[in-house]
Amino acid sequence: MRWHLALPAVLTLALSFRAGGFFAGTTALLAVVLAVLLVLRVTLGQTPFAGWSPALAAAAGALGLLTTWTLLSALWSDAPFRALSEFDRTLAYTLALCLMGTFARRSGDLDRALQALAAAFAVVAAAALLTRLFPEAFPADAGKEPDRLAFPLTYWNALGVLCGVGITLALHCTAGARQSVPARVLGAGALPVLATVLYLTFSRGGLVAAAIGVVLYVALAHPRRLALALLAAGVPTAIAVMRAYAADGLATGEFIADEAQQVGVVTAACSLGAMALRAFCCLADVRIDRVRVSPLALRTALVCTAAVTGAVLLATGVPQQLDDQRREFFDIRSRLEGTGDQRDRLSQAAANGRVQHWEVARAVFQANSLTGTGAGTFRLEWERERDIPLNVADAHSLYLEMLAELGGPGLLLLAIAILLPLGIAAWRLRGAEHHAHAAFLAASVALLVHTGIDWDWEMPALFVWFFATGGMVCAASSATSRVPSRPGRVARVVAGLGCLLLAAAPATVVASQAALDRGTRAFRAADCTRAVDGALDSISALPSRPEPYELLGYCNLRARRLELGLAAMQASLVRDPDNWEYAYGLAVAQALNRVDPRPAAALAFRLNPLDVRTRELRDALQRGGPGRRARAAARARIPFQ
To answer: What does the DSSP 8-state code read for residue 336?
Structure first.
C-alpha cells in the first residue's frame, strides 16, 4: 500500500482550510505532524531508508542548513520568536522532503501523487466557489476585499496561484500519457472550476502563473492527447469564465443572488460537459497513441509553431505592449486605479507597492550582505524605512526577502534545495515518465516564479507539496538501487529520538499559540481575568515570546496594577527590541507610572514613523507634566485591537 503518495495532497488540503497554514500555530503543528510521521517511518518501516540517495542527501542537507541558519539568526536579530517561527516553517519543508524521499521511487508514483494533488486543488477551488456564489448556504469570512475570492486561504493571490498550479496539473491529468480514463475525465471536469475561481480572485500574478504552467507543460511534455483534451475541456472552460466575467455583481461588490446562481449553474454544467466530452474523446486516444512521430518532425513542428506565434505577436504589437506594462510596473508613482470594478485591475500593470518593498529589501541586504537582519525581521525594516503608508509583513519576493533576512548564505542554500529537484526532473524528461516530470517542472516553475513577486513561502499550503514531491523526485529508484539492509533497533531508536527532538521546538509554539489565541479573544471581549490566564499559559509554554507579555501588560494597566504592567511591557520589548508596538506599550506604561515616557515614545516613532498612532502618542506625551501624560496614555489606542 503506497499510502504516502496521497500525503502531499492531504497536507495541502488540510492546510488550505487552515488559512493556508500561514499562522505560527498551524505551521508549528505541521512540523510536529511531519516529525511524528517520520518517527513512525524510521521505527516501524521495514526499509525506512530505501529511497535515500546522494541527490536527496544534498537537497535535504541544504534545506537543513537553511533551517539551522534561520534559527541561529536570533543571535543577531535579538528577536528569538521571529527566528523560531521561520525555523518551524523551514523545518516542516525539510521534514516533508525527507519523509517522502525515504520511500524508494517506483514507476508511476509521481503521476499518482500529482493526480491526488490536482484533486486536492480542485476541491479547494470548488469550496471557494461555493462560498462566493452561494454565501447564505456556505457562509465564510470574505476578508478585507469581499469582491476578491480568498477563502479558504484568506489571501486572494495565494488562492490564485493555487488555482494556477491546479490548472497545470489538471491539464496533465486530462492530456498526459499513462493517465487512466477516470483521471482524464476528472481532470477535464476540474478545469472549468479552477479557471473560474482563478478569475474570481482577480489575481494578475495567479493568471501569469497559470499561463507559465500551461505553456511550459505543453512545451516540455508535448502530449499527443492535448488537442482532444482542449477540444473537450477548453471550450467549456472558456464558457464558464466568460459567464463569470459577465456577472457584474461578482466584480463590483453589488452581489446579486440570481446572477451568482446562474454562474454556479453554468460552471457546474461546463464541468459536467467537459467530463462527458473527454469521456467520449477517450475512444480516440488509443488511435492517437499509436501514431509515431519522429523526433525531427516533432522539433520541426515546435520550431514552426514558435515562429508563427512570434510573428503573430510581433504583428499585433504585443512586445511593445509588454514593454509599456513593464515600465508601468516599475514606476513607483503608478498605482492601481480604484474604479470599483475589479475587472479593471486585470488590464493594469501597476506594482501596487511591490517595487518599494523590493527596494527596502535590497537596501537591507546591501547593509547586511553576509547575515541579513535575521529571520522574520523584514516587517521591522519596512516599518522603519518605508516611504508609503502600506502595512506589510513580507517583502513580496521570497528571494529578496531571503537576502534581506538571511543574507547571501540563506539564498544560496535555498537555491540548492529548490534547484536540485528541478534539475533531476529536467534530466528525466528523456525517460519513460517524461510527462509526469514535465508536469512537476511546469507546476513548480509557475509557483517559483510567482513567489518572486508575492509571499507564497509563508503559505505552507502552496509549498509543502513542492518539497514533498521534490523528495519523491530525488529518491532512489527501487528498480536500480540495491536493496538496503534493515537498520537495527538501536539505529531506529536513535533516529526516532532525533526526529522527536526536532519536534520539541514547534510543539512549544503550538501550545503557546493556543494559549495566546485564547487570551487575545478574552482581551477583546474585555475579560482580562481569562486574558491573563491565557497570557501566563503562553509564557509558561514559550518564555521567549513577546506577545503574551504585551497582553499581560495591558491587562495589568487596565486593572491599575501599574508596576506589573510596566514590568510586562519592558519584558516584551526586551524580546523584540525593534518592534514599535512594544516600545509604544512601554511608553504608555511609563506614562501611567509617572515615569518619563518620552524616550520610549520617540523610539516607537523612529521604528514606525508613518503610523499615525506613534505620531499621536509622541506628540501627546511631549506636552505637560506627569499627570497630563498619564491622562494621554490612558486614551492611547492599543495596537492589536
So the answer is: -
Q: DSSP assignment of 56-73, as one string?
A: HHHHHHHHHHHHHHHHHT
80-84, 312-316, 445-449: which range is least confident on average? Answer: 312-316
Q: What does the block give as the cell for 85?
A: 517561527
Q: For the chain, what percent of residues have pLDDT higher than 90?
A: 75
pLDDT of residue 641: 64
- Show the cell assigned to 237: 472552460
Print burial letters for 196-218: b (CB count within 10 Å at least 16), e (below 16): bbbbbbbbbbbbbbbebbbebbb
Residue with the three cell numbers 477563502: 151
Tell me the C-alpha distance between 592 and 619, whole Å.
Answer: 16
The helices-and-strands tally (H runs, E runs) of the chain is: 28, 0
CA 209 to each of CA 152, 199, 212, 448, 523: distance values in angstroms, whole numbers, following the listed order: 19, 13, 5, 9, 41
Separation between Cα atoms, residue 514 and residue 537, nearest integer Å: 9
Per-residue pLDDT at 459? 97
Residues in CB range of 137: below 8 A, 6 or more apart: 130
Backbone angles phi, psi at 389, to 5 degrees: -80, 65
Separation CA 494–CA 489 (nearest Å)? 9
Burial of 488 (C-beta count, 10 Å sphere; 0-12/13-18/19+): exposed
Q: For 347-351, which contacts have Cβ atoms below 8 Å and span 24 or more sequence positions?
A: 349/324, 349/325
Burial-class residue 523 by CB neighbours within 10 Å (0-12, 13-18, 19+).
Answer: buried
**Cell numbers that stand for 407 in this block:** 543574507
Asked if 210 and 168 count as a contact pair (C-beta separation under 8 A), the reply is yes
Across the chain, mean pLDDT equals: 91
Is residue 384 classed as helix, strand or coil in its secondary structure?
helix
pLDDT tens-digit series, residues 154-172: 999 999 999 999 999 999 9
pLDDT at 273: 96
As a whole number, mean pLDDT of residues 325-336 equals 65
pLDDT digits (tens, 9 = 90+) for 400-417: 999 999 999 999 999 999
Half-sphere exposure of 430 (CA within 13 A, CB side): 4
Taking 90 as the threshold, does the pLDDT of residue 242 lie above it? Answer: yes
For every residue of 510-562, which 3-state class applies, written as one string?
HHHHHHHHHHHHHHHCCCHHHHHHHHHHHHHHCCCCCHHHHHHHHHHHHCCCH
Record the cell numbers describing residue 503, joined without a space.
519536534
The full 3-state SS of 132-147, as one line of letters, equals HHCCCCCCCCCCCCCC
In which band, very low, low, confident or very high, does the pLDDT at 447 lie, cut at 50, 70 and 90? Answer: very high
Res 329: pLDDT: 65
The full set of domains in the chain, from first to last, is 3-286+319-334+391-474 (no CATH), 546-634 (1.25.40.10)
Q: 94: which 3 cell numbers?
A: 525539510
Q: Which of 273, 271, 115, 117 is nearest to 195 (CA)?
A: 271
Mean pLDDT of the 100-107 span: 93
